[in-house]
User: Which sequence fits this backbone?
């Protein structure tokens, strides 16, 4: 269980996130949506211990601040929005870094093959020998996800659930890979882990999210099941955009929804 | 699928490399470099202005016999002139190359080099302060530290320079290349200016010592000097294996390194202190020898990849070999006189540095 109370983050004198209470349980895929600049990423960084904040965050009842980096790494893995890299590492070397400090939960000869398994999982089988910097943006994003998966390969370890934090995991992916990645996140949650994912695609949030957390102007505006949260009124109030939820386009404009995947 | 991967990975070095696993290749490179260093040390022992031959002396060592006049002269040349110089050259070369690799990991930037960004200049200033003021203002310090006062002074100067540089060039966990290089230029200029002031207040004997810093040389290596710096250098190098995995993670950024379980602040402090100690003690005994710290790790990354677990020991080996070869050139090219080795490394290293810049122009966002 992740529980956060009264999270506020200031960067300089600017208040980015204010008084957020957040919780996400094992087995749950929690999504965070909200307009640009509403504090989603800042909130996620506070939750995973990257930004200093007021308030309290606990993982499985333990205060995050009391954990050593290696202990925290065994409980949660974090996929950032973008990763800059200055040295010519191969894809396999990057993915293997997921095993540096945490505990994958896989031991023995199997552990040696984990990078390849993680790469196959994100549909990058055969990419292990390529140079990371030569890949496309979407491929790089999936390599980073494979690294993050290695870190917490077993969603439950020693009887305790582990957590994935994903900051826009599908932002530069095509529709096929969006579905693959979201399936991975859902499987992780179904296997007993917890997932917190920032998404911009409301359709994916509705399709995969057990609960949607709507951020607006640095506060948590609404939390609930997708069908309760996504309403015409909320979209207009939070996103400032008159849209009708569930309406099909007029005439014969084609539209493709992830929900229509067969 | 798993079986197919296992088959691919177990079938030899070339296939492992093709599958993105360069660890076996890196280990092979390290073995080759160790052999190379051994050969280089023998070659350095055997070559020089005198015709003393290492083989004849080695034969003398082994047989333990024959104290004729020629052997005695050879033995003195080898044991008290060439051997300390070879040991010192290997230590300095290894220290400079390793601290270059550590700095590059710390700054996440292949262009960081202690000589280029003012760390050596800071260490030089520390050493010059000890030389010039050691008899007067700093007398209590030099009395207390004895032969260690010069390396300690250089260490403190290098540490101050590294800390200032890190504070100036790094914001929110990101190091700006432009800021780092420019701040390094400013630091080096400042240290140079203060050194210049000290040169004015110095006497003749000190002046000769000071000239030596500006050029960089392994001449005058003695067992006493080695005794003063070897413990510091070995300690600093012994710390680096503990940094390797952390520096690898740091390549993905400070935040990601923390998420991966690396205590990033502690890693940075250990890295900075070990760089300052290595560079400080190198500068204390041999002055400013440039470009070893940038050329060696760069060549090795091309050969075996950037994994610091292998890069750091390999840098030590190749750095030692290259500096010894450079010193062999310095000793023999204008024999019986000799060039300061700093000139040799600069002539070879500066064009190499420009080549890296040209190749990477698109990659490095200045």
Assistant:
């Amino acid at each position: 269980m992740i529980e956060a109370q009264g999270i506020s983050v200031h960067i300089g004198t600017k208040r980015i996130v204010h008084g957020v209470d957040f919780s996400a349980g094992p087995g749950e895929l929690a999504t965070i949506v909200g307009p640009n600049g509403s504090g989603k990423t800042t909130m996620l960084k506070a939750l995973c211990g990257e930004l200093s904040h007021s308030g309290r965050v606990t993982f499985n009842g333990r205060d995050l601040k009391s954990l050593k980096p290696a202990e925290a790494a065994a409980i949660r893995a974090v996929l950032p929005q973008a990763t800059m890299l200055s040295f010519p590492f191969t894809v396999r070397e990057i993915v293997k870094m997921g095993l540096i400090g945490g505990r994958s939960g896989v031991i023995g000869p199997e552990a040696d093959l984990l990078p390849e398994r993680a790469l196959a999982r994100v549909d990058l089988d055969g990419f292990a020998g390529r140079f990371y910097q030569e890949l496309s943006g979407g491929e790089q994003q999936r390599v980073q996800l494979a690294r993050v998966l290695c870190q917490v390969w077993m969603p439950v370890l020693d009887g305790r659930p582990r957590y994935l934090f994903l900051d826009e995991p599908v932002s530069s992916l095509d529709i096929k890979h969006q579905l693959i990645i979201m399936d991975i996140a859902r499987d992780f949650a179904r296997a007993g882990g917890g997932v917190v994912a920032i998404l911009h695609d409301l359709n994916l949030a509705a399709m995969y999210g057990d609960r949607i957390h709507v951020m607006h102007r640095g506060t948590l505006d609404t939390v609930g099941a997708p069908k309760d949260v996504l309403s015409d009124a909320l979209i207009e109030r939070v996103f400032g955009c008159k849209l009708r939820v569930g309406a099909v386009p007029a005439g014969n404009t084609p539209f493709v929804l992830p929900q229509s995947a067969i | 699928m798993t079986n197919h991967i296992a088959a691919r990975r177990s079938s030899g070095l070339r296939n492992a490399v093709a599958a993105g696993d360069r660890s076996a290749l890196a280990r092979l490179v390290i073995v080759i470099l160790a052999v190379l260093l051994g050969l280089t040390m023998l070659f350095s022992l055997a070559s020089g202005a005198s015709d003393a031959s290492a083989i004849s002396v080695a034969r003398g060592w082994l047989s333990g016999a024959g104290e004729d006049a020629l052997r005695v002269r050879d033995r003195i040349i080898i044991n008290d002139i060439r051997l300390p110089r070879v040991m010192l050259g290997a230590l300095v070369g290894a220290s400079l190359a390793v601290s270059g690799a550590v700095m590059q990991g710390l700054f996440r930037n292949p262009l960081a080099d202690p000589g280029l960004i003012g760390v050596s200049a800071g260490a030089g200033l520390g050493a010059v302060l000890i030389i010039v003021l050691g008899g007067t203002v700093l007398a209590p310090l030099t009395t207390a530290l004895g032969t260690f006062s010069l390396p300690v002074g250089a260490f403190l100067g290098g540490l101050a320079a590294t800390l200032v540089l890190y504070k100036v060039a790094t914001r929110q966990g990101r190091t700006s290349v432009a800021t780092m290089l420019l701040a390094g230029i400013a630091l080096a200029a400042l240290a140079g200016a203060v050194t210049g002031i000290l040169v004015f207040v110095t006497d003749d004997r000190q002046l000769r010592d000071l000239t030596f810093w500006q050029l960089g040389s392994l001449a005058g290596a003695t067992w006493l000097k080695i005794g003063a710096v070897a413990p510091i250098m070995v300690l600093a190098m012994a710390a680096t294996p503990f940094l390797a995995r952390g520096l690898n993670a740091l390549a993905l950024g400070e935040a990601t390194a923390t998420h991966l379980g690396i205590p990033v602040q502690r890693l940075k402090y250990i890295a900075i202190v070990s760089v300052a100690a290595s560079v400080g003690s190198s500068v204390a005994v041999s002055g400013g020898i440039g470009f070893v710290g940038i050329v060696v790790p760069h060549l090795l990354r091309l050969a075996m990849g950037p994994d610091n677990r292998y890069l750091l020991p390999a840098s030590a080996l190749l750095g030692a070999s290259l500096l010894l070869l450079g010193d062999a050139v310095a000793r023999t090219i204008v024999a019986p006189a000799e060039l300061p080795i700093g000139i040799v490394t600069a002539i070879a290293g500066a064009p190499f540095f420009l080549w890296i810049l040209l190749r990477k122009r698109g990659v490095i966002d200045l």
Observations:
- Chain A is about 30% helix and 25% strand.
- The radius of gyration of chain A is 19 Å.
- The mean pLDDT of chain A is 93.
